Amino acid sequence: MPPKGGRANFASLVGAVGDNSPVDRKRTPTPTKTKIEPLEGQLLADVPVDQLIANPRNPRDELGDLSDLATIADRQLQPGTVVSRTAWLKLWPEDEDDIGAAQYIVVNGNRRLAAAQKYGRPGLDVVLRDSIAVDKGEILWAATSENIDRRDFDVLEEAKAVELMVSEFGSADAAAKKLGRSKGWVSQRRALLKLAPELQAALRAGDLAVRQARSLARVPLEEQVAAWEAAQNPDPAPEADAEAPEPDAPQPKEPASKLEPVDKVAQALKRLGADPDVLAAAVRKHFTDDERRKLIDALELR
């Protein structure tokens, strides 16, 4: 209490609250800062790599040689694309154990993440895109569209990704439209999944051409390997018959009326001596865009 007749010092009264005072003597807690959630499309700089995890639904089987990304230890040229943990688990709650404590799932940029881990970069720049987590198909499309046509994305990985998209979007037509590809292209890629395991391995190794693989895919599964081996080791030509005409002797020609349209065109091209460049120029000059696309699809399906 201040001396009688004296003036009270306000500072001295701050802690002097009596037992019967209506003033709460408990100290008012300091308000805590509200956590600000990142916004859609926001660039998140240097997100620690232990908060990021590679897409567990990535259509790629292997990430390939990462040596071309060794410079990521010093600089990152392009940010990755991520989906938040919350948005991802709404679509795939069964992935919770795979995701662990990671806060973001990398949809585009899984090779960059792997390179950062390999070459010692502590954090990555990423862009948050929860808008693609509206359904499973959109996420699959985002992951697939980045990889298609990459040199290190082999054709079987491409085929598996296309098959997943057909399943998610409900039809081959819908998947083709989403990918911006023709229905023939989608059909060709899906056909490769019908190959025997031995032929798939040969296709990956580059020992089997894609065009030949598409033809073999139409052969019954149990006959495919034998058909491939037969194509690689054709039977030797039979010995020439004594009565066979001399090599230089003119061969009889079928009457033009008996030739199929395809044979007629082939003979005409042969007479003209048209090479592929000349033929391509003729097609560009006389065919419409739609006719050229149909021609490309027809060539790939043969």
Describe this structure in words.
With 302 residues, this protein is of the alpha/beta class. The chain is built from 14 helices and five strands. The chain starts with 9 loop residues before the first helix and ends with a helix. The protein has helices spanning 10-13, 85-91, 96-99, 110-119, 136-147, 155-169, 172-179, 183-191, 197-205, 210-216, 224-232, 261-272, 276-286, 289-301; strands at 43-48, 52-54, 80-84, 104-108, 123-128. Strands 1-5-3-4-2 form a five-stranded mixed sheet.
Fill in the keyword field for this structure.
single chain; 14 helices; 302 residues; elongated
Strand arrangement within the widest β-sheet reads: 1-5-3-4-2
The gross shape turns out to be elongated
| Fraction in helix | 40-55%
Distance between the termini: 105 Å
Average of per-residue pLDDT values? 77
The major β-sheet equals:
5 strands, mixed
Low-confidence stretches: 8-17, 21-28
Class by alpha and beta content: alpha/beta
**Which percent range describes the beta-strand content?**
5-15%
* SSE arrangement, N to C: HEEEHHEHEHHHHHHHHHH
Taking all Cα atoms into account, the compactness measure Rg is: 34 Å
**Number of separate helices:** 14
Find the count of extended strands (DSSP E, 2+ residues): 5
Explain briefly what this protein structure is.
This protein is of the alpha/beta class. It has helices spanning 10-13, 85-91, 96-99, 110-119, 136-147, 155-169, 172-179, 183-191, 197-205, 210-216, 224-232, 261-272, 276-286, 289-301; strands spanning 43-48, 52-54, 80-84, 104-108, 123-128.
